[in-house]
Amino acid sequence: MFTGLIEGIGLLVRMDRQGLDARMVIHAQYSVDRLVLGESVAVDGACLTVVSFQGDQFTVDVSAETLSRTTLGAMRPGARLNLERALRLGDRLGGHLVSGHVDALGRLVERRSEGRSLRLHFEMPRELSRYTIEKGSIAVNGISLTINGCGDGRFDVNIVPHTSRATTLDDLRIGQSVNIETDLIGKYVEKMTHPWTGPSEGGGAEGRGIDAAFLQKHGFFP
Q1: What sign for the dihedral angle of Cα 194, 199, 200, 206?
Q2: CATH code, 8-85
């Protein structure tokens, strides 16, 4: 589990293809003391496993699934990557809960300056829009961001100067793909309420969703 607060930038040193899978060698441009074999590191938002390390350089395995569903499959040596080690119990949760499991690719469609900040507009698959709300959270390339506005298949975020400096967001250009992970809590709520929000076999009241009548029936208020 991660927070979406980027610890530092890494450079892709080498991408070794091994059949359908790959291994990435990454040089961290900051101190990564006490790495442990098998620990998880979010690389541009994708949770990967450390298989070896030496100093500030480490190697991670990348599955065929991850290569096909994230931007990592198109990475070339020299690419800059957002890095975050896994959250420890007792750490501050300054961003939001991020699993490191990328939902889909998004695409930058507009960028413009607003005062000292940067406004970025993204497109994403429309089916993910149900997990976005204004002032909710979303992870873009592993970075925890607040949604300023959202609609059908789109959202926009405001990037303050510190975030621009501390991440790769300032590198993004129009049309470039990004890794999108929507709010984890929203997906669990949808899954758990599906028996009541999905269509019922007889087309009865249970198929109409959670409304005042449903809450009253189940004792939430008299």
Answers
A1: positive
A2: 2.40.30.20
